[in-house]
Amino acid sequence: MSMTKLSMLGAAAVFMGTTAYAGCGVTSGTVNILGNDFAAIQAVAEGAKQCAGGGVTVESNLNKDYRDLQIAALTANPAQYSTVVTTNAAIVPLIGEGLIRPLDDLIAKHGQNISKNQLITVDGKVMAVAFMANAQHLFVRTDILEKAGVDVPTTYEDVVAASAAIKAAGLMEHPFATTSQTGWNLGEEFVNMYLGFGGAFFKPGTAEPNANNETGVAALNMLKALTEQSNPDFLTFDSNAVQASWEAGDLAIAHLWGSRGTGILDAEGSTDEVVSNTVLVSSPTVGGGSTPASSLWWDGFAIAANVSDEDAEASFVAMLNGISTENVKANNDAAVWLVEGYQPSAASAGVLATATGGTKPYPMIPFMGLMHSALGAELSEFLQGSESAEQALADVEAAYVSAAKEKGFLQ
Amino acid sequence: MSSTIANRSSRSLIVISSAFVLLWVIVASFPFLWTLWGSFKVQGDFFSKADWTQALTGTRTLIETGGTFTGKGYEGAWVQEEFWRAAINTFIIVFFTVVISLTFGTLGGYALARSGHNYSFWLLMIALVFRAMPHITLVSGYLLPFFEWNLWGHIPTAIIVLVAINQPFTLWMLHSFFLNIPKDLDESAKVDGCNQFQAFRHVIIPVMWPGVITTGLFSFLLAYNDFSVTSMLLSEENRTMVPAIYGFLGSTQEEGNVMFAVASVVSATAPLFVLVMFFQRQIVSGLTAGAVKG
Amino acid sequence: MRHKTFLWFILPSLAAMILFIALPLVSVVVQSMYIEHEQVLVVTENCGPFGCTQESSVDTEATAQLRAEQPLGRFAGLATYFDRGHLASSEVAEAWANRESLGDFFAELYNLPFYKALAFTLTYTFVVTPMVIVLGLLIALGVNRLTPALKGPTIFVSLLPMIITPLIGSLILFWMIDAQGVIGKSLQWIFDDPELSLKASPPLTWITLIVYGIWSGAPFAFVVFYAGLQTVNSDSLEAAMIDGATKWQQIRYVVIPHLMPLAVFISLMQLMDNFRVFEPVVGFSAQANAPSLSYIIFADMRSDITRFNSAAATSVLTVIGVTILLAPVLVRTWRDFKGKAV
């Protein structure tokens, strides 16, 4: 980039900072943002707030429990929030209840800088704009793998073998961990594994469950083989627990969220030995499949249906300002951004490798959440060894069917 | 003869009971001392996955901060994350919740205690059933109407909901307390020409304080420790301490800052220490006066 | 007291309870009897940063029309109460019909989420409640014998477990009982078993939760009993001493009867609170081994798709459960009430 261009960018930033609303291009409207509470979304909300001024007000409510609030908040008319920051799982009920509006006209008017792959379209209509990606992938300790004489695993079969080799070499008692806490986390592990085996959760075009089959049993058996290499407390492991164990040097291989990479690779909380030997690689494949056994997630924003067109436009423009190239550059390491201008770092290597490997996105199906809850609740007995895989999957289907009937997806 | 046996057995009884109390004091306070100590360390030491003695010696704290104690957790929570806002919100909410709860509760409890009609018993029973309702279900039911009427997120809304949720317990405690104040007191006032409210004001109010203070302490704890109501009904700028601490813990995908949470837990417990120290005589005297005779 | 005066006194309290508890309660009961509309599904092409897929989605317009016709959803009566997620009548009947032994039947029952949660909830309630009363009484008796100078600080320390937020308190203890944590390591040393983990096996998780329940519940019982001890009639104690009663006999025949009404009050509150045990389950990540009824409600409410009807049905069942548990105490209170009124 030439010097003149750089200084122009700088000048533009200063200009935007001082007369913000002129820079954002809206003169009136109320923007109210609802979203999850973490660094990347805080940065986006801050960016959006720079559009405040003149006739524009921008407020935000970042809350860990945003998912429990969003339906009620957007059902009210006028909606309490004009825009929500959401994910591929959390957006599903919003679409299903018709609470967010198609963005095509707003994109035509303001969205020249949005790249095509940021658009989330349902049936040809843009429903959200994605700005960051996440996925679970492998974290490995190269020094331990070297001592045990094994390569960085690329398949789950390798992961099991490598863990066994590390154990046999007496290096670690429980070398592997993943987020296997009963509930949402365990459900997510099964989803990853089942997608890796090429499974489909539902019979095509219907809401009939399709998990109790050979693929499901294979996925469960692989999960069990993995948890056998894990600490016996594995049913209590959430991301915080796995990260803490990793930083303490208790683990050699972990399947963990890419968003945890930055925290693991910084010097805080861990020894130099652990940090310098930690490498983030793609999620492994399983069962001879070609795509990694993980699922891709995005975070993006959607605009409420029950607000005035004026507020919707102001919200759209303000959120675009929140995910502007300048703002992303200023917060480069906070996330794996999908926005132009993002510089990949060591912390994002795993997510990018997993994404380029052709990993499937987490299914955006209206009844997937019910399946996920059923999986999270019914699989722990099998992993503890008190139930057969077939019984566990039958329980999952039974729990799902009773939930889906109640929600009107099955009759 | 028999008295010496009694003495000897009572001496050993004293030893046993003192030892038991000592054991209980250790069991009750150990997690607090541990957390207090750990709040001045870094996360690596607080969890000390490698070796638990590091939590005592502060090995990682020394490496990361250059000293064996650090105020980083407190600084992060109070300065960087502005935990003081949550503290102020909490005190506003708790103060009004306690005052309103007690006002409503004294009037209602008094009426229940003085009315011999069957319906007052059934009211008490229904209040008890109300208390059995899981809060999370109640709170989810509020969401849509509150959003519709633009009541959601405001401090007064949370206060009135907490008051309502506290009412069954407050009514029960104060009702049993008023049962123990002799009926003759207000009866004689009424004979002197007071109406029921004047009797309440001039005769009952002066003698009811121990019971009210005890009940107040329990409603204080309920409001102070509440999570389900405050986390779901308050907007970000009105958030109270407990949801704020919960927010520090991070979520599945995103890392939180556990040491901020630990430091704020200690900070949030500190006012309670003061409160209990200050009111412990009253708690006991209030209970003694019969607030809890079932 | 006249009806009208009574009404004026109780009005603020009653209004708050009707508005914020009774009306929502009615709405919860009503909603538990409805299920959602049939959702009209269509297959659409959905695209995102990671490519396009053919996926099912809800036909919003068609579903909205159904919704406008019946805003509450489809009436299902008690169907939700008897489905697999709740009382599971058909599964229970089937398990009974196909049972090989009684143990086999209970194993089948334990595989159903509601009964698994009920088993833990009842065990927790019936172990913790009496233990809290006994422990609270012992502490109260012990503290009562201390010299006055020691009493103040001891009372203060004894109240600590009660005053910390349960969600945070259980989380802190969860960190301490970790296999690497201070309590976890100490237990490994005491039992001489380096692999001992309180989090892994169901029985140990149950015991951990129960111990936590006793720890956090005891201060309430203690403070109530301690206050009660201050009012023990010293004349009757002296009379007992003159009659040659030992300390134990004094406690057995004078103190305990005096404290009985307080024990009733404590058990009332404790039964109710323990039956709703929730925070420790989340704090200790014990949902795999020890889910409680309140946890099931929480899981229904806080998933990607909120199942309010199901949560409402579990809530109503919880309230009914509490009422059944409290029935003996309530009957006793009714008798007291009639006795006083006469």
UniProtKB/TrEMBL annotation, chain A:
The keyword Cytoplasm does not apply. Keywords: Signal. One of its GO terms (cellular component) is periplasmic space. InterPro entries: Bact_solute-bd_prot1 (IPR050490), SBP (IPR006059). It is found in: Periplasm. Its main location: periplasm. SUPFAM superfamilies: Periplasmic binding protein-like II. The keyword Signal applies. Residues 1-22 form the signal peptide. It holds the Pfam family SBP_bac_1. Belongs to the bacterial solute-binding protein 1 family. This is Putative ABC transporter-binding protein. It comes from Shimia marina.
TrEMBL record, chain B:
Keywords: Cell membrane, Membrane, Transmembrane, Transmembrane helix, Transport. It is a multi-pass membrane protein. It is found in: Cell membrane. GO terms for biological process: transmembrane transport. The chain crosses the membrane at residues 12-37, 86-112, 119-143, 155-178, 199-224, 258-279. InterPro entries: BP-dep_ABC_trans_perm, MetI-like, MetI-like_sf. PROSITE patterns: ABC_TM1. Residues 87-277 form the ABC transmembrane type-1 domain. GO terms for cellular component: plasma membrane. Gene3D superfamilies: MetI-like. Belongs to the binding-protein-dependent transport system permease family. This is Trehalose transport system permease protein SugB. It comes from Shimia marina.
Automatic annotation (TrEMBL), chain C:
It comes from the Bacteria. Gene3D superfamilies: MetI-like (1.10.3720.10). The keyword Lipid biosynthesis does not apply. One of its GO terms (cellular component) is plasma membrane. InterPro entries: ABC_transporter_permease (IPR051393), MetI-like (IPR000515), MetI-like_sf (IPR035906). GO terms for biological process: transmembrane transport. Residues 118-329 form the ABC transmembrane type-1 domain. It is found in: Cell membrane. It is a multi-pass membrane protein. The chain crosses the membrane at residues 7-30, 117-143, 155-177, 204-229, 250-272, 311-331. Keywords: Cell membrane, Membrane, Transmembrane, Transmembrane helix, Transport. Belongs to the binding-protein-dependent transport system permease family. This is Inner membrane ABC transporter permease protein YcjO.
